[in-house]
Amino acid sequence: AVYAFARRIGMTSLPALFASTAFAIGPVTYGMTTDRIAISTQYPSIALGLLAAEMALRSTRLAGFLSWTALGGLALSQNIASWPAQGSLYTAMYIAGWLAYRWLFAPLPDVGSRLAHLKRAILFGAGMLVMAIAFAGAAFWPALEYTGQSTIAGGNYTNAVQGVNLPTAPIVNLIGVILGDTPYSRLTATSGAVILLALFAVGMWRNRYGVPFFAVASWLFIDISANESLTLRFFYLIPYFEHIHAHRPSAASAYVYPAFFLLAAAGLQFLIEEVRASRILRALAIASVAFAGLVALCRWRDLPVGAWPIGTAVVAALLILLCALRLGGVSTGWSARLPQFGAGILVAVLLLYPTAVDYGRIMNGTGQTSGLEDVDPATEDIESVVNTTVKREDPGTAAGFLQGQRDTQPPFRYAAYYAADTASGQHLPFVFRRLDPEIVHTLAGSRAGFLGLQQISGYNPIHLRNYVEYFEAMQGKEQNYHFVDVFYQALDEAQLFGMLNVRYVTIPITLGFNPPIAVYGVEVFRDEQTIVYENPRAFPRAWIVHEVRPAEDGEELRLFNDYEVDGRTVAFVDGELPGVTAPADGVANDEVTITRYEPEEIALTARADGAGLLVLSEVYTTGWKATVDGVEIDVLETNHALRGVPVPAGEHEVVLRYEPMTLTVGLWSTGLAGAAMLGVWGWALIGWRRSRSRMEPLADVPADDTPELDVSRR
């Protein structure tokens, strides 16, 4: 999409290749392979959206216009599905900005008047938005329902622990992370050649190849992230902009890169086509002084500027200088091809840094990257640690032991305790040392998903509110809204801990002290890295109670944790209480067996001595539906965060399925929108093939007489 867009606005093949290479190598690729997927996945949508907008403006047929509008909707739908607030907003800003630029400053001659431009831009924007929301429906509407039950309902962070709006940053800091070359700036650092060429394009001072637009976009996305912003107060006049942007304004600075890359490609295009050495030298001087000023500013503020960004900028400057000097002589032979050679070298420079350099550093153990800060290359086999985190099977370890139990025992969960609640009281989540061997071998991170195991903790910026409140009551402590980590208090025989079906607890052998589980638990596995304890207080995955009380706005959690109420016999329910009866002889011999367990469906057989409430140690959320012997019945919010299903006396088949109405509506929306997209693309393709079949063959034209296409404003 980047290559096609660059070519369509007039760039030749090498600059277009440079733009697409810069787009694919660096922050985009790196972010997609680490922990910045949400931001990185937005970049392809920007490129595809810009291409769709440009082609829609150029379309002369209705079918073509609608097909490009549908493609724009497809692009924006990916942002709505993956990052519906900020991501969609910033991508829409790019596309709307390009349409405005074409309308006001670079109108296409074939479109007609500026009013015709405006009408076409409005129709494209409205159609793209409708198609995007419709096609993203299967992801967007269920996510919206889920978010409404989370700690940040409606995007409001007021009730989220440490969910305050993050501040803007000094503009020099934002520049510093772009020029940096450390593990912490790697997600934002880019080649100095890109920055220098972008500045060079600005220095050429031409309204070609979208340079004014990309220059403004580069500055704008940094400006709205900065303390010294000149424009943010005006953007905040737009309804909901502040609500969406203010939580994490620095995220906007990540959107400078598409503009950087296309601006740099334009600079390379100017270098190839320019015939006046003085113009090149003037632009190079402006770019060099500006780049040196940015480096000096960062050094003055003690921000680390990497040698590689500076070195690649110097290489780019020297190549530009050589191309300018060759204009002083006769441009024949190899000298006439010097700009093309230089462009090829700059593409190679992009491949070298940052990706190839990072790979070499990791392979030879001389460098680190995000997530490896706690791994010592001198004592740890980094490749082995990384490979261990993605293993599906790991026999002979704690992971292998738990997998063996999973295959022979009823469903259970485990909890990993690695002293996230440090002695100083500071919370140190696993994500900041996710490749630390302690974290890897105790399965505290995301290994459970690879291994087919289930745990109770983890990382998610939109945890369900009822589950977070359950955790806080269980541990007597709050933690940052991103995390639900297991603290010391949970292991101190907390009934709420056992009620989550936690049968096993893993701890690192290097912990340095014995947590409470070591006293009342049973050690069932030990190796050189990990100890596994069995929790005798663990509840089964499902059980039946015959006493039901109304929920007490969270007070029931304290009653459970203080053992004032036995959760095996009593449950608290939100809403109308179901009818329950005690067993005839006063002793319950109920039985519950899980016969099928899938992420979206659970089947059980339940035998109750009297009418009771089947309690499942599964987190409650709207959208779950239950049937008892085929008859639909409501799933009740039980014990503040769990699910409950009323069952009559006797033996019954109980099935729970996740079937939210929002998913049904969303699937229909996505399906219909997808069919509409395929329809307009098919219509456009048929029309294109028919038009080609009606075209008469062109006569041969001598090469010297081939007319030159003016693409300067396209």
Tally of separate domains? 4
Biggest sheet features:
5 strands, antiparallel
Proportion of residues in extended strands? 5-15%
Query: What's the number of extended β-strand segments?
Result: 17
Cα gyration radius (Å): 31 Å
Regions with little confidence, pLDDT below 50 for 5+ residues: 369-374, 696-714
Query: How much helix, percentage-wise, in residues?
Result: 40-55%
Pfam families: YfhO
Keywords: Membrane, Transmembrane, Transmembrane helix
Protein name: YfhO family protein
InterPro entries: Uncharacterised_YfhO
Tell me what you see in this structure.
By secondary structure, the chain is of the alpha+beta class. It has four domains: 41-157 and 665-692, no CATH class; 165-370, no CATH class; 382-534, no CATH class; 542-659, no CATH class. Helix 26 (555-561) links the parallel strand 8 and strand 9. Mean pLDDT is 86; it is low at 369-374 and 696-714.
